[in-house]
Structures are given as C-alpha cells and as structure tokens.
Design goal:
The chain has a domain at about 90-240: Nuclear Transport Factor 2, Chain: A (Roll), CATH 3.10.450.240. The protein is about 40% helix and about 25% strand. It is built from seven helices and five strands. Strand 4 (about 215-225) and strand 5 form a beta hairpin.
Length: about 240
C-alpha cells in the first residue's frame, strides 16, 4: 500500500507540472481567433506595391489609347502668353507659329529643340567637310541630302579635300515656325565662327584659310512629321545670309 501511495504522489506532481507548462506556453504563444493576418510574403508584397513618385522613381505616364477608349479627353494646356519668352514676342507671326506647333505636338520644348539644332548644325557641317555621307543621311531630308552628296562627289572628283573646325557658335535664333500639312517646321539662324580650308590634290589651298577665322551666318529649316514615331528633326532647307 505504501508503494502505491508513493506512485500516486509522483504522478500527481508530474501532472501538475504538465498543466503549469502548458499554461505558460499558451500565455506566451497565444491562440488563434480567426482574425490573424496571413504570413508575410515578400514576393506578393513586391508585386502589389504601387509606384511612388520620388527622386529616383516616376509614376507611369497615361496611355493615350486607354484615355481614348474610356472617352477621356487628353488634357492639353493652352499656350501661355509668356511661353516663348526670350524666343518670340506674343502676337508675332513667330509666336503664332510656335503656338501651332505646340498645339499639334504638346511635348514640344523650344529649349531642347534649340540645343538639338545646335548639335545637329555642328555635326552636319563637320560631316560635309569629311564627306561622311552616312551621318548626313541620318540628319538631312532627301532633297538636301542629294544636294550635299552631289557637292561632296564634285569635290572628290576634283581631288580636293576640305577641313572645317568650329571656333564658336555665337548665336542661335529661331526666325520662323509653322505647321505645314502634317509636318512641323522651324527655321533657325546660326551665327558662327569657324576655320575652313579646301586644298587640291597637291595640298595647295584653293579656298578658305587654315589660319583665318570665317564668320558664317546660315539659315536652316528643320522639319518633323508630327504623326511619325521618329522624334528626330531633319534639315530640309538651307540658305546663307
């Protein structure tokens, strides 16, 4: 009898410890109520994240096709009176022409255009002197390219070579602008200084000077098809003042 009592006491002690441990675990781990949040999934969180505007992020641009399908009219700002400040005075034919281009091509940026026109001017003059037809073909309209290509061929047939080096482009002004048919056209006047010399097959100078500066004023017209996917402007007409 004494042995059975001892076993009963130990059994009771173990049961008490088990109940105590279970109660402690329950208080620490808690219990499910059916309202718990699902486990965190970094992949689903990444995919569901919305774009946030910031220094290194940009919200996606609206899709014109989507706007058209939903019947929403694209919001295009009307030209402002001071939009062409420093370029053209309000009410002048030049300002009216620039307004027409802006309405047809709302992303038209006159400052960006002038920077690109200046770069194109240098590239074209240099490519013409070097006889680089490939570069010219990418920058010129067909008629202008044909004229430049013919002048290069005539020079080569005479055995002449030409060198041109820009010293400075002193002034770049827009003198005219218009929408002609489906094309936007902008005319720019370049005032520059360059060193230009043409030599014959014997190395003798036949035009220009290797040491003297030449003042040049060119009036060039650039055009771009408003409906085309190609954003580049091409030289379509030239004249010298």
């Amino acid at each position: 009898m004494q042995k059975a009592n001892v076993l009963d006491i130990y059994t009771i002690i173990f049961l008490a410890l088990a109940v105590f441990i279970f109660a402690r675990l329950r208080s620490v781990l808690g219990q499910r109520t059916g309202r718990e949040r699902p486990p965190y999934d970094p992949y689903s969180a990444r995919d569901a994240a919305k774009p946030v505007a910031g220094p290194d992020k940009a919200l996606p641009l609206p899709d014109p096709a989507a706007e058209k399908s939903t019947g929403r009219k694209k919001d295009i700002d009307e030209p402002k009176a001071d939009r062409w400040a420093g370029i053209a005075e309000a009410g002048t034919p030049l300002a009216v022409g620039l307004d027409a281009i802006f309405k047809a091509q709302p992303d038209f940026d006159v400052g960006h255009f002038l920077s690109g026109a200046k770069a194109a001017y240098e590239m074209i003059v240099t490519a013409f002197a070097e006889g680089d037809r490939k570069t010219l073909k990418n920058l010129l309209g067909k008629e202008v390219f044909d004229g430049f290509a013919q002048a290069i061929a005539d020079r080569e047939n005479r055995g002449e070579t030409m060198e041109s080096r820009f010293v400075a482009i002193e002034k770049t002004d827009i003198t005219a602008a218009e929408v002609k048919g489906s094309a936007a056209q902008v005319t720019v006047r370049f005032v520059s200084q360059l060193v230009s010399v043409t030599r014959n097959s014997a190395g003798e100078t036949v035009d220009g000077s290797p040491n003297g500066l030449t003042d040049v004023t060119d009036i060039w017209t650039f055009a771009r098809d408003i409906g085309a996917r190609d954003p580049n402007w091409k030289l379509v007409a030239t004249e010298s003042a």
